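Hey,

The postdoc asked me to send both predictions to you directly instead of through the lab channel. I've kept everything plain text so nothing gets mangled by the mail client. Protein one:
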Amino acid sequence: MAGSHYKSKLLEVTEMADTPMTAPRKASWKSSFAKWLGVAPFFLFAIFFILLPSFSLLTGSFFDADGNFTFKNIAELFTNPTIVTAYKLSIEISAVTALGGGIFGFLLAYAITIGGLPKFVRKALITFSGVASNFAGVPLAFAFVATLGRTGFVTALLDVYVFQKYFGIKLYDTGFNLYSFAGLALTYLYFQFPLMVLIMTPALDGLKREWREAAENLGATAFQYWTRVALPILLPPILGTMVLLFGNAFGAYATAYALTGGALPIITIQIGAQIRGDVLHNPNLGYAMAMGMVFIMAISLVGYSWLQKFSERWLR
């Protein structure tokens, strides 16, 4: 009797376990919908302002001005000397500013995290970096013209108190020119190194004190700790951020155009001349050039994401 009663109860429990529970599924569906609803604006933005324009550039690259299908625009990316030079110049200035901004930014990030500077210096530098990393375009170009241009304020001070006083020449007599490759690179560094500071500060904060203590207990010197422990851990985020800086400089347009007025033919200025210009007006060729930029930027983003995986493994 007791055995049959136990079996019946066990059967009821089994049936209840096998019966699908609809209420939790509804709650789970609503929760999942709410989560996706929160990121819907991002996907809409990506579709309408990234994917669709990129698709339009891709399709436009394979047509000429008369609407005929052609590979000529793509071929000119590799055969037209002006376009090849523009890509080369953009890659060079992006690499130089990524390297310079990466080194300078890393040293600043080290100074405010491990270097022992007061906390108010860290707060001030982080605040400045947050503003300066987004300060570009025409305002940045005007700021540098007003300070380091031929009649700029800083130029006048350097001429009076340094160059004319000790060397008998002016700053621009040394060969420096704000409107040249060096001047544009210097301008780009203004928003490059703050971005490095913002990204590398959390990475340096992620170095655990236990790692250094363990190295010291094993007899390692400070130099050995940095070369064999800290730098190998920090190398992926350092390289990844430099790749990000490369892409950041490679896609800059307004700053270069406002500063040089097109005298420095980087690829972004050449694209603008092809799409909107009166002399070099060939929108379809401009679309092909833009797709070349998209390809290079995509490689940069893939490299950055790949390097970030290595840094996340240690800095959790």
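Protein two:
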Amino acid sequence: MHKIDVFRKEFQQYSSLNNPDAKQVSNFASWLEERGIPLFKEAFQQETNRPIPSLPDEKLIEQAYPKGLNEIDKKQLQQTFYVSNAQIFVQTCSWIASTVVNASSDPRAEVFSSRHFDLLHYLVLDAMVLLDDWAHLTQDVPAMYGIGKNAWHSASQIALATDQLIFSGSPFFAFTDNSTDSGIALLRIALETRMRFGFELLGVVELSTQSVLPLNLSTVFKAIDKHQHKFKLAVPLQHIERIYGWSNIYVHIGLKHFMWSPIFALRYMNRLLRGGEYSKGFSVNAGIEIDKATLLAIQDEAETAYNLDSTKYELSKIPVDQCAVVLTA
């Protein structure tokens, strides 16, 4: 019997649970920690003839996330796409399972049992989708593992997810189903806000009407790129661009990725988005450490790239000392 069949058979005893209590969810999480995840790693290697690696996070970002629609087909034909996503699944599922097990002794965990269960349940289902995609797209063997997934998020589903966000998942106002995919849109907003307010580049003002016109973020990225050797970013610019481009796929057409993708991307980007410790203490802005001269040079670069007529337009900026950065000089 193939390892994947053993994995699926053992998983089924948990996947069939209806309204599981905290103890049942803890047992499921314990199985994943002690048996399920190690078994999946063996199954993945047996099926693909490739072990799940131990790559650094930077490499996983580069190999597992398409930067745009034009990269999706190319990525899905590469073996590195599948091994990287398998590693991300293992890391993410291990972390969540461990957290659920540790929380099981807390009486508050009972209220969240169904949500913890759904989180782990859908992660495992997507792990099997990953293998199915590998078989179909790289081996020309469709439906090898007998599982499929709706790859599109409809407007009605996104509206329901918005209810969950607004009402904190209260069952009296919204469904409590998992809405991880919708987090991709928020991650995109967080990245765009971080970069615009970090480098003072908010938009373009039309002087005659005082209307604020959009300043394409790709222009901001290009301006930053020419000066990135002069300052410190907590996350490499190329990875910020990649995750931003990847998130645009979902925002523009509702195409979903694997469930672990937004979870891993957010954790990776937290150093930029939430800040932390730096040489002189702690700051929520510590993801960007830069001096005033470089900030002004980046603004000038963006203005030059846009070729603005100064009699008609000007950049919408905020004072340098109010930027969301740690100023070094």
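Summary for protein two, as requested: The chain has three domains: 3-149, 150-179, 187-327.

Thanks,
C.
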